[in-house]
Amino acid sequence: MGFVDDWRPITVCRMVIGGFEAGFLPCCMFLLSTWYQRFEIQQRMAFWHLIYLFISAFGNILAYAIIKLEGVHSIEGWRCIFIVEGVATLDVAIFGYFLVISFPDQMLASGKR
To answer: Which of 11, 29, 86, 107 has its CA 20 to 30 A from that of 20?
Structure first.
C-alpha cells in the first residue's frame, strides 16, 4: 500500500486485510484452547487482550514517529508508515514460521515432547 498512487487500490487492500483479520482473533483463541486446559485459558486470553490494548495505545505514537521520516529517499510520510510496518510484519511472520510448534496431538504422535 505504500507504493500506490491512488486511494482506490488502498481501499481494496484495506478491505481484503480486514477480511483476513476478521478470522485472526478466533484462530488465536482456538490455538490457545488446544494447548491449555479450560481453567488456564482465561489468564492467557486476558494477557492477549492486555497486549492488544498496549499495541493500540502506542500504535499511533509509532505512526507519528514514522511519518516524521517524510522526505527520506523522497518518500511521503504516509507511505513510510505502510512500508516500515509492512517490513516489520514480514520479519515477525518469517520468524514466527520457525518459532511456532505443531499441535499437541501431533507432537505426541511423533514422539516429541
So the answer is: 107
